[in-house]
Design brief:
With 64 residues, the chain is an all-alpha fold. It is 66% helix and 0% strand. It has one domain. Helix 1 crosses helix 2. The radius of gyration is 16 Å and the shape is elongated.
């Protein structure tokens, strides 16, 4: 039996990585006292809110 080819990363996993990358970038900018781009903060909050609400409904842990 032949295994199927590797597919794509699940969206939730991709979004989790994106949340972590955004949080790290925002922290670096804050520590350097450089203004954080509004788009970064907006995207971070959008993703965190999306998965926090979904986690509450599913009874799962929140994404960092």
């Amino acid at each position: 039996m032949q295994k199927p080819p590797i597919g794509i990363m699940p969206k939730k996993m991709w979004d989790t990585i994106r949340i972590e990358c955004l949080a790290n970038a925002i922290n670096r900018y804050s520590e350097a006292k450089v203004p954080v781009p509004y788009e970064w903060a907006e995207e971070y909050m959008l993703l965190v809110n999306r998965y926090s609400k979904k986690s509450e409904l599913d009874g799962q842990e929140d994404i960092p």
